[in-house]
Design goal:
This protein is of the alpha/beta class. It is built from 22 helices and 13 strands. The protein is about 50% helix and about 10% strand. The protein has an 8-stranded mixed beta sheet with strand order 8-7-6-9-12-11-13-10, with helices on both faces. Strands 3-4-5 form a 3-stranded mixed beta sheet. A two-stranded antiparallel ribbon has the order 1-2. Helix 15 crosses helix 21 and helix 17 runs parallel beside helix 18.
Length: about 625
């Protein structure tokens, strides 16, 4: 017997002791496990997790590592009274990539059941209500079988989907030869013409080039005036958070696998709403072995990309993109250590931003800056780019060449744009321009991702050569129809895109010559103390040189110094005056990139990771 309450002087009944509430019934997608004798406490915990984060109980149960995926689907097959198929799936000719994987159903080769199913979410409860004659397997086994059934087709889709659907946006394997021939003819024609042009015309052309560079450096100087801070936003509750896909492309990255898995395991995000895909080449046995020994949590999945050309990061990402289950998606590099709250912060920004904000660029931070002078300069360069320049570009709503990692997308928009250009070795910069041409914006996400910089000149040069080559590829791609590009980007957007993509390479190529001549003219002007005879036009080249020298130094030093101040790296301010010497190395990389564009346009210069000797935050230390 229970006491319901007692009467108060005013006649109301006050509660004293009540019957305990009956336990909530288990959701159907896990209730069948209780009838099979599975631990009731784990099932109750999964049901509570599902209610807390607003997801299905099966995902909560599996992603919390309360049951293995194989054990769950074996139990589901037993509940449905159908066979369970594990690792020897042989799919029939009607298998479609990615449709079969998205639907979770594919035909089987005879004999046996006609189809096999690997349901997720609401589809599980639906099957339990209606029953099925199909065999049951796990989603991972179905994915592996689909890749094994059509490796050539999947490799081709990953390489050429953009080319097939939007050839005007794609670099393409077959278009680079004509592009390079045209570029070579133009450069040759300019060189021949320069040999026969009168001196005044050459002086005028030189002056126009100087003025063009002044426009480019003005963008960098103006960025200093933009405030980078944003007021903090109240984070979304777990129930309102979307499923988030994390893509990480790895190639020969065995040394950093333990650190990467540890970093991705620390996300402050509901485990049932995480879809983490580690993408590797099918023949990368070293990385595959490292992942096999890493004891991956259930929310991690390995996607093995079939062999094919080009062997690039964007091709690997394209193979995994159709499998993404999240409404939002982020790309990281293998050496990254993102802030644990980054996904929640990005999901909150997306939820409160307009639909045309299709991408958020996180802040990349070099953490092994104390390895030497080169890494210190790299850290300063990144501070200038991600803490000063990109926030300014985002506030101006102009095209932004993306950083390639810590880039967050609305998955639907990314699919609408057909993913990444597999043939472009800086697919991030190209995608940033394509987003702008399609009418979308890139926002700044004030959340850090720690990275490792090469500490020796040779690997640094190989990496930067690839970047410069990719900027040239991006420039050639989007310069095919200049009037259309101008109309899509607008005058200001076009100016910024030209300054940031081809302008970056051209300015690096010309940097030693322009700045050398500018320094000479500046010294001569300072020594003479007065303009030469001949009036305005005669002094215009020298005046432009002097202005370029001063503006160029300001464009290099001001964003770098401000980036250090915003980071609190006051000890690195003494390195900032040496940045003009560092830019000589960037010029060397630009010339190397131009050469490689002709000799090996699709070569992906691999950067080795896991070599850092220092870590200012401790995040890059071996696990």
């Amino acid at each position: 017997m229970s006491l319901r309450g007692f009467s108060t002087p005013d006649g109301r009944t006050a509660p004293l002791l009540s019957d305990p509430l009956p336990p909530e019934p288990l959701p159907p997608e896990i209730a069948f496990l209780a009838r099979q004798g599975f631990d009731a406490g784990r099932l109750a915990r999964a049901a509570a997790l599902a209610r807390t984060c607003g997801t299905d109980a099966a995902a909560a149960l599996i992603h919390a590592d309360l049951i293995t995926e194989e054990a769950y689907y074996r139990g589901l097959a037993a509940a449905l009274g159908v066979p369970f198929l594990a690792g020897d799936l042989r799919l029939g000719e009607g298998t479609r990539y990615p449709d079969s994987l998205v639907a979770g159903v594919a035909p089987l080769m005879a004999p046996g059941p006609a189809t096999v199913r690997a349901p997720r979410g609401a589809a599980i409860a639906a099957l339990l209500r209606t029953g099925t004659r199909a065999a049951i397997t796990t989603p991972r086994a179905l994915q592996a079988a689909a890749f094994a059934a059509n490796p050539v087709g999947i490799a081709a889709a990953a390489a050429d989907t953009l080319q097939r659907h939007r050839p005007d946006w794609a670099l393409g394997a077959d278009t680079q030869g004509p592009h390079l021939a045209i570029a070579g003819l133009v450069l040759g024609a300019v060189g021949i013409a320069a040999a026969f042009l009168p001196a005044p015309v050459l002086v005028g052309a030189w002056t126009l080039m100087q003025l063009g560079f002044l426009v480019m450096v003005t963008v960098r100087i103006a960025a200093v005036s933009v405030e980078a801070d944003r007021p903090p936003e109240a984070a979304l509750p777990d129930t309102a958070l979307p499923v988030y896909t994390v893509l990480v492309a790895l190639h020969r990255e065995a040394p950093v696998v333990p650190r990467l898995v540890a970093a991705l395991s620390r996300f402050d995000y509901p485990a049932a709403k995480l879809d983490i895909k580690l993408v590797i080449e099918a023949d990368d046995r070293e990385t595959d072995a490292a992942l096999a020994t890493a004891a991956l949590p259930a929310r991690f999945e390995i996607v093995r990309v079939p062999a094919g050309l080009p062997r690039t990061k964007p091709r690997a990402l394209n193979a995994a993109l159709p499998l993404a289950r999240g409404a939002c998606l982020v790309v990281y590099d293998a050496e990254d250590v993102p802030d644990p709250g980054q996904l929640r912060a990005a999901a909150t920004r997306f939820a409160r931003a307009s639909r045309i904000t299709a991408c958020l660029q996180g802040r990349l931070v070099i953490d092994n800056m104390d390895d030497g002078r080169l890494t210190r300069c790299f850290a300063i360069e990144y501070a200038a780019l991600f803490d000063v320049l990109i926030p300014a570009l985002a506030s101006w709503r102009v095209p932004i060449p993306l950083g390639g990692t810590s880039t967050h997308f609305r998955t639907g928009v990314l699919r609408e744009l057909h993913g990444w250009d597999a043939w472009n070795v800086t697919e991030d910069a190209d995608l940033g321009i394509r987003l702008a041409r399609a009418g979308y914006r890139v926002g700044d996400l004030r959340s850090d991702t720690l990275e490792e910089a090469p500490r020796a000149v040779r690997p640094w040069l190989h990496q930067r050569t690839r970047w410069m080559k990719g900027f040239l590829q991006t420039s050639l791609t989007h310069a095919r129809a200049p009037r259309r590009t101008l109309r899509q980007l607008g005058p200001l957007g076009t100016l910024c895109a030209v300054a940031l993509v081809p302008g970056t390479v051209i300015s690096a190529l010309a940097y030693p010559f322009l700045m050398g001549r500018a320094a000479y003219d500046f010294a001569a002007f300072a020594w003479n103390g007065s303009p030469a005879q001949g009036g305005f036009w005669a002094n215009l080249p020298t005046g432009a040189s002097v202005t370029l020298f001063v503006a160029g130094l300001l464009a290099m030093l001001l964003p770098a110094a401000l980036g250090c101040v915003r980071r609190g790296w006051f000890d690195l301010l003494t390195t900032v005056p040496g940045m003009p010497v560092y830019f000589l190395l960037i010029s060397l990389a630009a010339w190397s990139g131009l050469y490689e564009l002709v000799r090996a346009p699709n070569r992906w210069n691999k950067t080795e990771h896991g070599l850092a000797r220092t870590s200012r935050t401790g995040a890059l230390r071996p696990q």
